[in-house]
Amino acid sequence: MVGFKLNALKFALAGGIYVGLCAALMTLASLLHIPGMFEFTSLLAQFYGPWGYSVSWFGIVTGAFWGFVEGFVHLGLFAWLYNKLTK
């Protein structure tokens, strides 16, 4: 069976945008005291905190940046691996 190929760069960009947007929106929701969001942003603070993230207005930008980087790398590697496995 021959599978279809993913465009790894476009998949990575889409993943980066998605994860970055999620991090920014969750930080905003936590700042607005929406129930259940603080638990998520406390996890973000554990992972991104050493690189400047905090639950703050500046943290929205920082979280979006690091979320983009993480989504780009992870989903780019996922697409690359998928393409290798479907040869």
Protein architecture, described:
With 87 residues, the chain is an all-alpha fold. The chain has one domain. It has three helices and no strands. Helix 1 runs antiparallel to helix 3 (57-85). The termini are close together. The relative contact order is 0.24.
Care to give the gist of this entry?
By secondary structure, this protein is mostly helical.
* Through-space gap between termini: 9 Å
Mean pLDDT: 94
Order of helices and strands: HHH
Question: Mind describing the biggest β-sheet?
Answer: none
Silhouette: elongated
Number of helices: 3
Q: List the domain count as a whole number.
A: 1
- Fraction of helical residues: over 70%
Computed CA radius of gyration, to the nearest angstrom: 15 Å
What is the tally of beta strands? Answer: 0
Quaternary structure annotation? single chain
What are its keywords?
87 residues; mainly alpha; 3 helices; 0% strand
Question: Which secondary structure elements does this structure contain, and how are they paired or packed?
Answer:
Elements: H1 8-31, H2 37-48, H3 57-85
Helix pairs in contact: 1-2, 1-3
